[in-house]
Structure formats: C-alpha cells, structure tokens
Amino acid sequence: MTIDHVVPVRARWLAEELLADLPQRRAHSAGVAGRAAELSAAVSRVDRDLLLCAAWLHDVGYAAAALDTGFHPLDGARLLRRLGWPPRLCALVAHHSGAAFLAQAQGVPGLAEFPDEASAVTDALASADQTAGVCGEPVFLEERLTEALGRHGASSAYGQAHLRRAPYLRAAAARVQSRLLTLAVA
Ligand SMILES: [Fe+2]
C-alpha cells in the first residue's frame, strides 16, 4: 500500500498513535506542527501539507515500532517507508534538522538511502523543530541549541556534530525568516 496524498490529519493520527507511550515526544511533535503551520508561508503552497506532515512525523523514529538502528531520523524514515508514505516525506524525516551531521559524528550508516532535498521545506522543518521545546513549548533557536548541548555534553558525539550543525541550523532559520520577510513586503 502506498499513501499518495500527504494529509496532515492522517500524519497527526499516526504520530499520536506511534508516540502514545512517549507523551513528551508527542507534545513536542504537536508543538513542531504548530510552528510549521506558522512558518508555512515560507514554502510554496503545494508543499504546505508536506511540511505539516513531516512536522508531525519527524520524531516517530523514537517509537518502539520504529526501533532499528537506534538513530531516530533514519529509523523513522524507514518505518514511514514501510508504511507506504511518499519518498519525499520519508527523506525529509531522515534528514530533519541536520541529521547527517549527527549520523556522521555517531558513525551511523544508511542515511544515504534517502536523498536530502535541501529545500525551503527542509529549512522550515528544521526551523520549526528547533523552535519547539522538548514539551512543544515555543523556544528561541539559541535556547534550544544551548539546552541540547548541555543535555548531551560538549565532548559527546552530539557535541562534535554541534560545531557544524549549529551554523547549519542558524543558516536555515535565517533563510526561513528571509523568505517570510520577502512575502511580507511583496
Ligand atoms: Fe524534534
């Protein structure tokens, strides 16, 4: 079975089902979906439902049903592929929020199964994820980066990835803001 149309309410139901045992992660995903809706004008109209679906589903790799490599962006993308979600949605989940930097630092192979489209949707998804806190509350990007670095530790693989991932996330957020400002003055 393949899912031909990306329908946000279907993504929401699936995220809520898969993350039922992880209420904090579920609340975070709802927060990211809310932020994605706020930022959706930064992507083309035809991609807005895709962005919302990716926001709801980006962290389903934490679900027990997804457990494979232990690297949640890849596990989530593989689960969604098995469930028949479109390749573009799966790839956005695989590469969300600079996952390639973390995969490299942690020595996780497999991410190349999914292309990184490096698009306006990629940027908006990263920006939404990085401005929703662990319980979905709104946070500033720098707050989120500082909190995550503190939680993992500077000497961890996360800390190593942070050196290249943080500038990438700041650049993505700046591109989103620039797209929104361009619209505002148009
Ligand atoms: Fe997230």
Compressed to H and E, one letter per element, the order equals HHHHHHHHH
Secondary structure tally: strands: 0
* Alpha carbon gap, first and last residue: 42 Å
Percent of sequence in beta strands? under 5%
Q: Low-confidence spans: pLDDT under 50, at least 5 residues? A: none
Main sheet properties: none
Tertiary shape: globular
Protein name: Metal-dependent phosphohydrolase, HD subdomain protein
Organism: Catellatospora methionotrophica
InterPro entries: HD/PDEase_dom, HD_domain, HDIG_dom
Domain HD: 27-103
Structure commentary:
This protein is 63% helix and 0% strand. It has one domain. The chain has nine helices and no strands. The model has no long low-confidence stretch (mean pLDDT 96). With 186 residues, it is mainly α. Bound molecules: fe (ii) ion. The site of fe (ii) ion (FE2) has 5 residues, from helix 2.
Name a few traits of the molecule.
single chain, 186 residues, mainly alpha, 0% strand, binds fe (ii) ion
Briefly summarize what is shown:
Pfam families: HD (PF01966). The chain is mainly alpha-helical and 186 residues long. It is 63% helix and 0% strand.
